[in-house]
């Protein structure tokens, strides 16, 4: 039995830090959520650069790919979409969702969303969340932020998006890279009222 009837959209861009997307998928699918995933065109390049792994372009093969990376072979529902398929269901406001997380989110994507541009499915899906008043969580992975970055992020925050920078903490006594990543994932899922118990919370 699935945890939620409505799906959650995960957008993955070409920012460094694909492990954030992988760990998010791991916890969502393990908890039997329904995830609709769209990776931007640049994501293919980053997988090759960071992990020397080729991400397949076909949506059905992508599902197997992401499940393998997250080590969740069967739980939950995962449906992948080609970045160019702007006619997919997640591009429509009539497609009901829990919201959308863009993790990691590049500054290029931030700029396009702040400017109201929708050149691919990921950007269109995010724009739909904003116009429908649904939850959109942006996880930017960049440092330092330029004034342009900050202004674009402010524009998105003013439009209703939640900004969760990929900045880990140490009060939960992290021992591994995954512990540091999971802190960001937990705080991201908190924005959607999804309780992820991957780390020990502050008491």
Search tags:
39% helix; 203 residues; six-stranded parallel sheet; globular; Rossmann fold; alpha/beta; 7 helices
Verbal overview:
The protein is α/β, with parallel strands linked by helices and 203 residues long. It has one domain: 3-Layer(aba) Sandwich (Rossmann fold), CATH 3.40.50.1950. Helix content is 39%, strand content 15%. The chain contains 7 helices and 6 strands; from the N terminus they run E-H-E-H-H-E-E-H-H-E-H-E-H. Strands 3-2-1-4-5-6 form a 6-stranded parallel beta sheet, with helices on both faces. Helix 1 (19-30) links the parallel strand 1 and strand 2. Helix 1 crosses helix 3 (59-70). The chain is globular. It starts with 7 loop residues before the first strand and ends in a 13-residue tail after the last helix. The mean pLDDT is 93.
Quick description:
The protein is an alpha/beta fold and 203 residues long. The protein has 7 helices and 6 strands, in the order βαβααββααβαβα.
């Amino acid at each position: 039995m699935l945890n939620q009837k409505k799906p959650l959209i995960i957008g993955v861009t070409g920012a460094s830090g694909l492990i954030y997307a992988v760990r998010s998928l791991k916890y969502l699918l393990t908890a039997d959520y329904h995830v609709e995933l769209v990776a931007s065109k640049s994501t293919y390049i980053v997988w090759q650069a960071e992990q020397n792994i080729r991400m397949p372009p076909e949506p059905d093969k992508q599902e197997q790919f992401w499940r393998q990376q997250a080590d969740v072979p069967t739980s939950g529902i995962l449906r992948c979409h080609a970045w160019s398929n702007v006619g997919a269901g997640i591009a429509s406001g009539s497609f009901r969702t829990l919201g959308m997380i863009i993790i990691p989110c590049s500054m290029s994507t931030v700029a396009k969303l702040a400017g109201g541009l929708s050149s691919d499915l990921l950007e269109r899906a995010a724009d739909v969340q904003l116009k429908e008043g649904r939850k959109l969580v942006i996880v930017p992975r960049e440092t330092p932020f330029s004034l342009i970055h900050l202004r674009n992020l402010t524009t998105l925050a003013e439009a209703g998006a939640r900004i969760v920078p990929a900045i880990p903490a140490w009060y939960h006594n992290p021992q591994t890279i995954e512990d540091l990543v999971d802190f960001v994932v937990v705080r991201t899922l908190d924005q959607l009222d999804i309780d992820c118990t991957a780390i020990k919370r502050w008491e």
